[in-house]
Amino acid sequence: MITNSFPQALTIAGSDSDGSAGVQADLHAFFSRHVYGSSVLIAAVAGNSYGIHASHSFPLDFIDAEFKALAEDFQIKAAKTGMLSDSSLIKNIVENYQRYHFGPLIVDPVITTKHGAKLLEDAAINTLREKLLPLALVATPNYSEAQVIVDFEFHDQADVAKAAAQIQKLGVKDVVIKGSHVYQGDQETVSDYVLLADGSHYLLSEKYVDTTHINGTGDTFSAIITAEIAKNKSVRDAIAIAKRVTYEAISNQIAVGHQFGPINHWAIK
């Protein structure tokens, strides 16, 4: 057996105790795509399907130790980031990522929830723009997050395309702006806008699913892209696979939790 020949991916994110999002969702997604997943934990939250009740951030020197330990043993082919709450943490992650060789970086810039609740300190937005996003092979902001990054509101599809081009100018090679999951009254699809490094752009659409079980959707989408990149798939193919299998996980619901439940990683094929 060749040492470290199995495809390996890394998630840099927080632990969600109910298993629906964060590192847990990322590892579920890696496993579903037959990629070995490792993690750098940056925080932990005590939460359930009703909400988050407590949180704890890990010291930066402990995060340094996690990076060092993985670099000394594993051959990670691709990495992704999740929620990074403040400037000092973002700078730490950037320094560690540049220090070690963990393959292409997929940035899920967790700024707001699907319903617009802020998760990243305002002071850290510029750090995200200037330090982390320029390292990204792929960035996957949701509809609300993309508006924060470019600092203007979207009124139509032309605004989304303009925002993707502006995000690309920050140094991101490939951009996916995920469509809004907030029901509009007559919504039939959720469409993601893709702008690739070669200038090609297109929409990827799946049927809208009326469900409260969408926790971990964004985490899973970016984690699937990461897993496929770790297996040497092209970015275009990785994004297409991520869109398809995330829809499968949303549309095949599981009865876990009372309110905002997880998506179903067992449905991913």
**Computed Rg:** 17 Å
| Biggest sheet character | 9 strands, mixed
Q: Please give the domain count.
A: 1
CATH H-level homologous superfamily name = Ribokinase
Order of helices and strands: EHEEHEHEHEHHEEEHH
- Report the CATH architecture: 3-Layer(aba) Sandwich
Q: List segments where confidence is low: pLDDT < 50 over at least 5 consecutive residues.
A: none
Q: Please give the share of residues in helix.
A: 25-40%
Secondary structure tally: strands: 9
CATH topology (level 3) name: UDP-N-acetylmuramoyl-L-alanine:D-glutamate ligase
Mean pLDDT: 93
Strands of the widest sheet, in order across it, are 3-2-1-4-5-6-7-8-9
Strand content: 15-25%
Helix- and strand-based class?
A: alpha/beta
| CATH top-level class | Alpha Beta
Keywords, separated by commas or semicolons:
269 residues; alpha/beta; UDP-N-acetylmuramoyl-L-alanine:D-glutamate ligase; 9-stranded mixed β-sheet; 8 helices; 9 strands; 36% helix; globular; Ribokinase-like; Hydroxymethylpyrimidine/phosphomethylpyrimidine kinase; thiamine biosynthesis
What's the helix and strand layout?
Layout: E1 8-16, H1 22-32, E2 36-48, E3 51-57, H2 60-71, E4 78-81, H3 87-99, E5 105-107, H4 125-132, E6 136-139, H5 143-150, H6 157-169, E7 174-177, E8 189-195, E9 201-207, H7 217-230, H8 235-251
Parallel strand pairs: 1-2, 1-4, 4-5, 5-6, 6-7
Antiparallel strand pairs: 2-3, 7-8, 8-9
